[in-house]
Every structure is written in C-alpha cells, then in structure tokens.
Write a structure and sequence with these properties.
Elements (H helix, E strand, L loop, with lengths): L27 H21 L12 H16 L5
InterPro entries: CrgA
GO biological process, one term: cell division
Keywords: Cell cycle, Cell division, Cell membrane, Membrane, Transmembrane, Transmembrane helix
Length: about 80
C-alpha cells in the first residue's frame, strides 16, 4: 500500500495589524460648525424679521432652510473621529 505524502505547513504568519483611524479632513470641523451656526443665525433672523428675511418672498420656508442647514451640520458630525 503506497504512503501518502506529508504536507508541509507554512510557518505561522500573524495577521496584518490594523491601521489606526484615519484623521479628519481639514475642512470637516469648520464646515460642520459653520453650517450649524449659519442655520441658527438664519432661524433667528427669520423670527426677528417676522419671516420677511433672509430670503424675502418665501415666508415660513425660511425656517425650513435654517433647519436644513443645522441638520446638514449635524450629519457631518457622524464623520468626525
């Protein structure tokens, strides 16, 4: 009866080390804070001018624009490390 060949096992190779977290892009924090502050200023301006400004003619939609700016700023916080 023939003998089977023995398999040579390779030497133990440890798994590669995981790289650390990537740094934030330089633009992320200023844009994030800028959008949140701009949204806040937009909403305050809308209330102080009784919905006539910052964009005349769209009325209460100025509030929606302000909230969209704030929500966009908060959504950028998910990318912040």
């Amino acid at each position: 009866m023939p003998e089977s060949r023995s398999r040579k096992k390779p030497a133990y190779v440890p798994p590669p080390e995981k790289a650390g977290p990537k740094p934030n892009p330089r633009w992320l924090v200023p844009v994030m804070l800028g959008l949140m502050l701009l949204g806040l200023v937009w909403i305050v301006t809308t209330y102080l001018t009784r919905s006539e400004y910052p964009v005349p003619g769209i009325g209460q939609w100025n509030l929606a624009v302000g909230f969209v700016l704030i929500i966009t700023g908060f959504s950028l916080t998910t990318r912040w490390h």
